[in-house]
User: Fold these one by one.
Assistant:
Number 1:
Amino acid sequence: MICLGLVALQHRGQESAGIVTSLGKSSKNFSVHKGMGMINNLFNDEAIRKLKGNLGIGHTRYSTAAASEVVNCQPFVVHTAHGALAIAHNGELVNCESLRREVLERGVGLSTHSDSELIAQSLCCAPEDVSEHDGPNWPARIRHFMTLAPLSYSLVVMHKDKIYAVRDSYGNRPLCLGKIVPVDAGHANINDQLAEGWVVSSESCGFLSIGARYVREVEPGEIIELSRNGYRTVDIVERPDYKRMAFCIFEYVYFARSDSMFEGQMVYSARLQCGRQLARESPLDADLVSSVPESGTAAAHGYARESGLPFGEVLCKNRYVGRTFIQPSTRLRQLGVAKKFGALAQNVEGKRIVLVDDSIVRGNTIGPIIKLLRDAGATEVHIRIASPPLQYPCYMGINIPTREELIANKLNADQLADHVGADSLAYLSVEGLVKAVQMNKAHVNPLKAGYCTACLTGEYPGGLPEELSW
Amino acid sequence: MICLGLVALQHRGQESAGIVTSLGKSSKNFSVHKGMGMINNLFNDEAIRKLKGNLGIGHTRYSTAAASEVVNCQPFVVHTAHGALAIAHNGELVNCESLRREVLERGVGLSTHSDSELIAQSLCCAPEDVSEHDGPNWPARIRHFMTLAPLSYSLVVMHKDKIYAVRDSYGNRPLCLGKIVPVDAGHANINDQLAEGWVVSSESCGFLSIGARYVREVEPGEIIELSRNGYRTVDIVERPDYKRMAFCIFEYVYFARSDSMFEGQMVYSARLQCGRQLARESPLDADLVSSVPESGTAAAHGYARESGLPFGEVLCKNRYVGRTFIQPSTRLRQLGVAKKFGALAQNVEGKRIVLVDDSIVRGNTIGPIIKLLRDAGATEVHIRIASPPLQYPCYMGINIPTREELIANKLNADQLADHVGADSLAYLSVEGLVKAVQMNKAHVNPLKAGYCTACLTGEYPGGLPEELSW
Amino acid sequence: MICLGLVALQHRGQESAGIVTSLGKSSKNFSVHKGMGMINNLFNDEAIRKLKGNLGIGHTRYSTAAASEVVNCQPFVVHTAHGALAIAHNGELVNCESLRREVLERGVGLSTHSDSELIAQSLCCAPEDVSEHDGPNWPARIRHFMTLAPLSYSLVVMHKDKIYAVRDSYGNRPLCLGKIVPVDAGHANINDQLAEGWVVSSESCGFLSIGARYVREVEPGEIIELSRNGYRTVDIVERPDYKRMAFCIFEYVYFARSDSMFEGQMVYSARLQCGRQLARESPLDADLVSSVPESGTAAAHGYARESGLPFGEVLCKNRYVGRTFIQPSTRLRQLGVAKKFGALAQNVEGKRIVLVDDSIVRGNTIGPIIKLLRDAGATEVHIRIASPPLQYPCYMGINIPTREELIANKLNADQLADHVGADSLAYLSVEGLVKAVQMNKAHVNPLKAGYCTACLTGEYPGGLPEELSW
Amino acid sequence: MICLGLVALQHRGQESAGIVTSLGKSSKNFSVHKGMGMINNLFNDEAIRKLKGNLGIGHTRYSTAAASEVVNCQPFVVHTAHGALAIAHNGELVNCESLRREVLERGVGLSTHSDSELIAQSLCCAPEDVSEHDGPNWPARIRHFMTLAPLSYSLVVMHKDKIYAVRDSYGNRPLCLGKIVPVDAGHANINDQLAEGWVVSSESCGFLSIGARYVREVEPGEIIELSRNGYRTVDIVERPDYKRMAFCIFEYVYFARSDSMFEGQMVYSARLQCGRQLARESPLDADLVSSVPESGTAAAHGYARESGLPFGEVLCKNRYVGRTFIQPSTRLRQLGVAKKFGALAQNVEGKRIVLVDDSIVRGNTIGPIIKLLRDAGATEVHIRIASPPLQYPCYMGINIPTREELIANKLNADQLADHVGADSLAYLSVEGLVKAVQMNKAHVNPLKAGYCTACLTGEYPGGLPEELSW
């Protein structure tokens, strides 16, 4: 079940993955399987059979150049004086350097540069003001860590027969709670029956595939304990009064899977709203609205509905083109080679096309696509991007290229249109984006809008720690 | 360029691939690179650099259980008394057993069971009635082979500085001709410049990516010679008078890439017409037309347009689910697990849905999808299949499961609806399909309709050779 | 140079290996390359080029079932408050469980079960009685660790521009010091010139291959500091008064390479002496003395010289038989299959043979060899083993099978002769072995004999810690 | 059993291997397993289980740069008009080019450049003068091939339930016959019992390991048929009257395993005789005779016995050094690095050493070994080579480097001694070699000496075909 859940989260990280399960009572009874690569390859029947127990945690990890090593695979398991602890972490500690210094000065050696080891070593030692005559007080240790580390993290921490689910007080990274619903015993094989259960996950998109239903999000600062007795909130750590919630808006724009739910709404719906808002902000007279499959489809449908223009497909994707690929010679590149896509020529010929995409990062792919459509006979190609220009790095868990690589730091919209050969190019505004993701939430006070838009505006929640100033 | 072309043909075969190039004059100057796997992996920079010459042929091969061996990779290179010959073959020889017997009785050993070796050995020996005082007469040898082997094949045969492109007299397998257009020398790197050139391919979808334009199809029975002097028809081998052309209709339905052109029309358009025809044949009162991404999308748009119902997305695809995968337990299967897809719940809730797909083969995947949509709140789910029931094996190059595995041989439409949990299920009729693929061709005389529909009707063009009777 | 040295130590461990080098001043300038497998495969040109600096440590690791994981590859690198520390360890901590408990109770998490991590975390924290106002006092920290951990270890610890070489106070595991001799500048390429340098190693056999000369052994309890200024003894930790030195005698018998020097004598010579002693203890009337190549050759030569019998080869080794191999059927096993060896039939026919080997562990291989010799015509085959019966486990770094697997715990010499089909079988006595390894050392007082013979006698130096009692 | 036999022949080729077995009656019932690599890796349990039948042939193939491809793995299987034929070939066809031309002009295509395919296609076609009204006459076809191809080959040809064993009329390549002896049924598992059987092999060294006994060699020109009824000579093809037998003398010198039997004598004995003869031809005053392990050991023992000097070991081999290895810098090479060997210093110090090796090819390894011995204290090092200088290429199956690479074509014995730093260096004479290999054969008329010494003398048996003249 954890494995199926991770398959649904594979888009959040393809570098490595792992699962740790627990037999409960004894602290020695962890089963661990971790490795480099995709879930499908890592978790064959044999690997799954070896994972014993009735609770567990899993993780899929991002591909970042710096630390693509086996030793950094999560969940991170550490042996403590009270038995083994397993930790999985979504996010990035903004003040990791100062946290690191503290741990090292305590006389603890660190064998990796990963945040997970840092969190683990932080939890291994009971703070002075935490009394533990009855055994380890994990919630108190977690609270202590949270007061030292403002963001960004969604965490699961497993010890014996309990899992703690933790979200930082800014709510920067997503984390939601689901309920596993028992199936009708009439049909089920007796061995397969499952009592009621609970699950937490960065995204809800895997819930249906494991027979679970979305219940609610874990609140910013909340520490939830999952055990045989269900779930209960054991603590809520507040953020500073003058600070607003800072949920990563990039999850809506790009990162999350479109069937996930955040704040009670489907990501697909938010993207469709972005397309509608974009049509309002940058309308056009054209024959056809289309998208770069599959990233821009939701927004393109939104644009089409709002504008009243027909939606139609203009590109066909080559399913078999991987990431690493032969470099065509200059001559072939010049031909506007778009080996990833083919043009549906008879749909395009003589048409004025609005092509919608979700975002522009380095700006490398859109030029060849426009060339391809013109070669296939399009008379005009207008680009509409359903998010604002991406301009700033993220220190909270999203892997954004350097400022120099971000095309929006080099060219404005008109220059970019020119550069890629579009007849026009327009972005969604930051205000428009915030409005769009709140469109379906009547109850949200837009003045209190709680989103982290740092990659778009450079305004980091809680400010940037000194160690990160650039 | 050949490599990029093969990437665009990767959907036609993922088991193995190869390229042979020729330096022209000398018969010893073939460069060969072949192997198991996908183009991306086989053809790295080094492999490509080693392929020298200015003409060449390439091939991607199908995954069929029986002969997944390196020795069967194409193109097949054979050394003859007149130098090396390279052959690539799309199709399957229906009378291979009798051809084989003839070759063996001539005292020739065969080291594989592949059709390519058989074709090669047939061409190695000049037939008695072919006089060759001036050197080998390849067109005459090819004609001789064609008279012995009625179908099915599209062939390319390379010798020294010439390539022969051959299509069987029934036109069963596709083959088309394209022109490589020189680019503006002003911008091009001098090394990358390319004079005019010619290309033949099973599908036209790769043409744009290599700077070529679709010219026409190679005609049934035609032998085209490509050389430094351009192309010319050197012979046309007729089929028996009483026989009609028999172009594989399954190429339209399923096999070809949607941006390819056959008979002057785009495959996507033909599929959209199938959807329109389906709406006429099996209309419905519903809230939403959708498709199983991405196979049914063109037909779904056609259905929506014809029926006037709105089109909307209901499924989100997990890009990272490969073919080999963990087997969920019965319990999880029962939950209607569709790990490949997620439901866009807020689009589905309370809706009556028409779900369009291009074909049903074994019928394994549709059930879990329906279950997923119902779990997500759909009130009705109706299945519409944009092709007739698939019931018979193909002996002409398409890898269709055994009759026992084909669900249409076990259940009729109503039984199948029941079996997969649909509110209704309807197929397109054979007549409807033939009509749909001719819809855009005003010039085609429908009475002379020239399609092989053997997998749908059991009527094999030219009859079944004795050796294949079952 | 480190890499070549490790190649010469490959016999000490084939599971994994690693090298860490240091650029000296800055604590961040470690280069690390580790992995599973043999030196030849792990250290290609690229890997070696990346290892920068002018000091470094390396390790090859044993194949033990329990912990064959990448995470356990040595050297172990740990980040401390004073910069990175790299540690390589030969041996096994007999009281690791109590050391582990201490570290955990200090609030430190441990992520592996390896001794190396334990040693590293022990060194990370300055003990209370060590004052460090001028920076870390590594020798004092090492001494502190040594007082807690009696045996068994030879250690190298690298920090910035210094390496500490440490041998436990019992001298259980070997460690020796060598001097790198500058070569004649007249011939040397300028880039290749090397000033004088120093090296420590578990065995001296690699010294010649890196241009070094054997100087002396590191003394039991000695802490040597290697730096730009040469080497100096910074401390000597004493063992309890009533305890004798306990150098592993199994190094002489089996483990070390025959060209290594221990205690001023060549291992080959010690083995030859064992053969001589064996001839005295168990003489025979025979035609030929031979050995199982190549393990018993030195002892066989000794036996031949002492007995006056001729030495001759009787077996030919198949160089290409690896470890994992096809299991012959019972029938073939019965035939006395010895696929690893062939018999030199014409040397064997009609002869009475004394076959000498260095040791018997499980007793599986000798039977088929005897059968092979008899099939080839030998009239008598007598087995002489140049070491006493192996009966007890080792907790100090040698990977000996379980007591149940050791044939000497199941059969005495006569029973074993019967079991393997020998005409007679005799072991060397423990006294004889100790005498033989001291034969060349006039200066050694045999009454103070300082060897660990635990695997032969069950007498563990320092007694067995409670946690290991069985 | 075939697999075990191939393991014993692994030294004859490590590039690829294969086994084909036959179920007998039906020509379709061949099981084939072939691939690149060593027997141990290719033939796991599963592979062996799939090989069905009670007769079969196997092959291990040489690593030659030109043709290291899967397609060249042997045995070669070809389908003929009379069913499948499997062929394995030891040797090289000296007139392959003219044979090739004949086959091609018959209208047969060849897909490889291997001799095996050529032989196969030759056998596929019945020659005009062979009448086959009762089915294929394989012996006649084989005889026909043998009259066209003088040498060099030992062949096994399998068809249905028969195997033909063939040796060329010069007896150039070895081939011998063995009898599989039934074992005592009292002990054998019923399934493992084996009736009497027959085996042919290039060398006899594998016979003991499969329960077989050496019977005799296949005679030059002999065609033996093996079947359910045992073996029988079906034909003997004579060589030209004026030609002598030409058995490859290099098999004795270097290639064969020392426990194999040729012409009634053990290869080890022949090598020992070479050492004796060498001592007679090039005697010395020295302290110790030793060898480069393990290639020169037999000859060194011979030299020691003849000269009366003591034999002793001076080098210790590193078992773990593979072929591909890190390139030491010039500095390290200069140090006389011999990473493959260590010096047994205490055996060498102050000694005058005769170092015997079997042959010198490129002369790269002996220099560093001499340097190593001098570094270890040897006062003199004299090299004695138990074969004549290797100067000419072989076109009959032995992979000898080019003339330019052979050190004997650049330096004479004295120059070479100088070059490698030896005090003296001497080869065995050609006459001495021929005498030595006949020493034990009282019955052989030395005037009729039947050896191919082409690589030593440039005199090719039967002369060189024009196509090979250089």
Note: The interface with chain C takes residues 70-71, 76-81, 85, 101, 104-111, 113, 117, 120-121, 123-126 of chain A (CB under 8 Å).
Number 2:
Amino acid sequence: MMRTRRLVETAVMVGMIGVGLAGASTAALGAGGDAAQEGPQKPLVLRKQGSFFVGGQTESTGSNSDITINQMYVQYQIPEGAGQHLPVVMIHGCCLSGKSWEETPDSRMGWKTYFVTRHHPVYVVDQVSRARSGFDATIFAQVRSGVLPPSSLPGIFQVSHQSSWSIFRFGLSFGTPFPNGQFPIEAVEGLYQQEIPDLNALLPTPNPTYANLSALAGRLNGAVLMGHSESGFFPEFAALAGAAGIKALITIEHNCNTLTDDQIAALAKIPTLIVFGDFIELFPQWVTANANCHAYADRITAAGGDVTFVHLPDVGIFGNSHMMMLDKNNLQVADVILNWIENHVEAEAEH
Amino acid sequence: MMRTRRLVETAVMVGMIGVGLAGASTAALGAGGDAAQEGPQKPLVLRKQGSFFVGGQTESTGSNSDITINQMYVQYQIPEGAGQHLPVVMIHGCCLSGKSWEETPDSRMGWKTYFVTRHHPVYVVDQVSRARSGFDATIFAQVRSGVLPPSSLPGIFQVSHQSSWSIFRFGLSFGTPFPNGQFPIEAVEGLYQQEIPDLNALLPTPNPTYANLSALAGRLNGAVLMGHSESGFFPEFAALAGAAGIKALITIEHNCNTLTDDQIAALAKIPTLIVFGDFIELFPQWVTANANCHAYADRITAAGGDVTFVHLPDVGIFGNSHMMMLDKNNLQVADVILNWIENHVEAEAEH
């Protein structure tokens, strides 16, 4: 039975605007290139792909009834040509899963695939207690059977369609997008579909994802950790749990916790990139988050660290929402990050 | 910074034993070939990869607070050379996720990658209410706040380490594997890590996954549906919800529900493969399941259908557990399925 299928990549035009980072280039875009210019999408060539778990403990839920909890799912792809570039670990935000790094809601290439085309091994995780990592259901069973009161249940957070617009900065009011916004708002239902219950309130302290990320970086003999939103500071917390394998910290739109001087001194040894998108000034919570991250960056700098703070409009990239990995110019934003890794992390390691 | 990494595929030797299916062949094993014979793993060449959701409805959880429920996550890869072979949709079993089809616990290639090397587009789903598909958390919030009593909570099922051994047929008692069993028992912790809470008790009737699978097959303009264990009969239920895009039904180790004559007549129009592994006779629940599926197959045959029932030991493949996609001979079992698709589905469609 012969069948043919025409697959047209709808990737946006990737034109790299000078972003104030050395080495910015549109060369070697691989499969991320403009479809109209390059014809059909170039094939993606992988040396290996698969998935595994990091961490987890055995918990007894009764006689002869053990389960595993606090493990973290990791799905990876290693491109042909890997060895030139560091592995990148991508950690999703609140109410989302590793899905965020994959195809965009309007069917364009996500960062997972794009980083692979740029010859980085990519490791996409689901946070502990989310998605394929599972969660510890013990409390739910205990409340159901009356052993624990209903108040023992964790608060489960799910972002509503309406809240998505304000938290993710699609517009000032629900249903009215910014005219120059980059989020593919015509496909917003595809974002709503990936918004799932967040059970992080169920987790012990510290969040087991931190140690699992640290262990993953160690297992990879060196990796860049990139967090977003809820997980924006997970790279830093993972480094504080054990920095041996962590080559760089990328924090995308977080509130940047206030740390002790000792913690700052430890983190200042690792190159750090902080990224914020557009429309920050229109949302008080994002103004605060941005200011906190500037204060954090100043402390890292004062401690002798290499920290780069990119406010995308300041480098000529406009209209980005909080979900910049899904925005129409998502590959342009990815190039900012990829070039920073090359120039601030990989180039430094050669000296 | 230059780094090199030696990746050695530990894929088992795939020697196709005559299995009583026409056209069995070890040719064109692609990346699944024996590492010792072929050297490093061959690259995997993809035309496209990504993920999307099928289905889902908007649910109001209060004023200006809508969420999406009942959507199904789908992750896909389309190999170079696709067009020769039908897309295959893989549906995981109880307490598991799409992870089951990926790398095995002992780091060998899973069926997802192997089917891609055999030039099938592969679509791996997470069932509605599981993993990246999310779940409807409304009842949990209502119980926590006292609006509903604790008895309203769904029973959440999680398979314990101990139960895994009996349900998945690793041995007759926990900790003592069958000497000739194929499950990589030295890596059983990697299975425990992928066993996550099953919230299917929360789902409406009929299970929304059925209609979503039917819609997915339609969107693909034709696909083979393959279910396992809990989802072993999901292909059949999906076909009963709408058979237009469903080209074949593969049922791996299920209980084979009793259907009406009208349902049997409808399903008899679609080629069906039923697969069972080894050690069935030692487990009463599996004896019953096997017998029920034989009765089902007989009814499909009587209605004029093309049904193939493979008990693996009868075709010279021994030692398989219930988790045959993770067993040491998993690619050998995959070949049985792939050859059946070629000969009973794709070859028929050419006439």
Note: The longest helix of chain B spans residues 330-350.
